[in-house]
């Protein structure tokens, strides 16, 4: 990756003080060199977002004026090798330097060399060696007198490196503490730039921990500090680093503003290198915004072979506009940057953008890239660039009848073999694993299965050797596909199972795999789960009553159910881009067997050619299993049509027919079992577009499901808050009656809140009083079991587009946790955690129109709020009907202390149904989470 040339040429001892200030400040400023290369595969780890305040850019003689020229040259060599991506050789240099310093009893410089060694070992994925190096470095510093400025500079560097390692190992709280200590040390010595870098690192840790507001607060402080600095290249680099940090956190618009300021400053200071770096980051931000605006269409087949070519997408005008901007940014870079790798990265990124625009590059453009690749100095970045280029060539090949020589299989294999040879020469096992794996994938695409398996197994062995789980799962998945294609189903299932188990261990790392993980998740993570479920549930077919039942072993059924639960969790992790969802070590069968009212749980998953249903009945060790064979695109179209009919007030026969069809898929095969077990409550763990359909509105030909069963939804029983507290009714109710921020008024909200207040004791916040600050203050001061928010809101598959409207702003889903839970404690301190909200009610909210995964946002709100149960609406109903339903719901709850929330909702919906028969008025209200 291209990095600013921070190395000075002056080495004379007489400039000690000046170099000290400049070089150490620059060390502090090496916050993040950003997201430089967007992989065509979006999985090659050339996209690195190490928001770090320390990189090995320093002159060792600054710290030890008596160091020999040879040692200084050794440290310089290590830094140069590190910056050029030759990490194994860099590690060797730093190791040798540390040993020499040890022999000279030079503890400070030994600690510095070990600091750089740890950074380098982290790049190689050698976690044990990295941990050993940084621990030894810290021990040396703790044993030394840290009174001098030099010593404290080194301490701050080492603390930053320790934080990097801790975050990589999933120890976000420890990383935060290390970075806070680093920032404190920088402040003590008056190094404002180093402090800024440590603050950005802290924001990364808070983001990983799910503390959105703290993340944003710190980044706002960083912005303030940077803007107060005089104009300089340091400031330009800092603004770019802040922009990249904001991009990584999902705040694309703010990211663009910071990057534009960085670019303007670089242009003002006439720095082509900093200008090209800013352009690269701006291109990536525009690319990310474009992908946020595209609509992924359902396809007739899953992405079984992960070639990751952009297909099946519908472009919006906004998306096209952003893609064109990204293309223009990338196009400017080669003529400005003197770093060959930066120019290649820009050209490769532009190739990816062209695929989204449906445009073909010219043969001359492709040949120019290949020529540039051949001239790159061997490095990890050069290896990844070749793999990236191959991915683009494979995608371009699919879209053309005529294939120029550059797209010939022989040329593609040669590119990959060159990448492999360079990785071996560099002794970079991670890069070597990628090269081998993608050779295997290319031969898989060419149906040369034996050769593909050979390369894949070699890649997997290397990934396992260096404990690189983030790439091992890809080769485990690839091996599973290859074994399946060769007819070895048993070993294929084993390989897929291992891949899913690896993904489960990767929860923290998965979130940081790619800046565009929201899109890539669907190509590179989700299919592993779905394909494994499909394999586990394969068997001989036997037709029974329009649906199909299959003889599948109980072992396979239980594993398939667990995989569906794991997929639900992975989707939420991906949605939030953090892993702060608490998983209960729940025995799912025990939950169902002990539930009152008597409960059955329905698990669904939509596969390429069918929809699979697994049912857990109470007090039964055997799971039931039903399958309807129907193409995925037909299932999706039916669900979309039903959703539209449910939202149209005057539909009748066509709506009932669609509703009955979905009922036949999900419920009819299980009716006899439900009746035999006297089931009264149904819990649905729904998949994909099924989440957008209110199960209460399913129709059996005579009556709606809600007329017979109470209904609840769950993102997975592993996420269920199990403890049942004594019921106490006291509510914080808030709402808007007036138009705010372009949203229509809700005049009946006042009536709704008055009716609630007449039923249960309530504290009201209406209109101007309804702010996020007031909500937080009230929830903090009084433990309200019920929080009722009557306001506009939207649920979306995009986390940034999921929010609840207040008088002065939108509460976005990432803020919800901190406003409602009131438990975001200072890390490292032990505070009393207040009891959970028993029930969160969101009336007048709705799922985003046209978003097939919009209800994922509702599940996200339910989980993120910390409430045990969440009642919300899938679409916006006239607020008069809402007022009636909510009033009846609370009336039912207060009349019978033993009544479950799901049954209270059922009775309230039935009450409205008798007056307003159409599901439009009563069906959208769904209960998510604990139904008791």
UniProtKB/TrEMBL annotation:
Species of provenance: Nostoc minutum NIES-26
Gene3D superfamilies with a match to the protein in the record: Tetratricopeptide repeat domain (1.25.40.10)
SUPFAM superfamilies, per the entry: TPR-like (SSF48452)
SMART domains: TPR
Annotated CHAT domain residues: 657-930
Pfam family, one: CHAT
InterPro entries on file: CHAT_dom (IPR024983), TPR-like_helical_dom_sf (IPR011990), TPR_rpt (IPR019734)
Highest taxon of the lineage: Bacteria
Recorded coiled-coil stretches: none
The protein's name in its UniProt record: CHAT domain-containing protein
Source lineage: Bacteria, Bacillati, Cyanobacteriota, Cyanophyceae, Nostocales
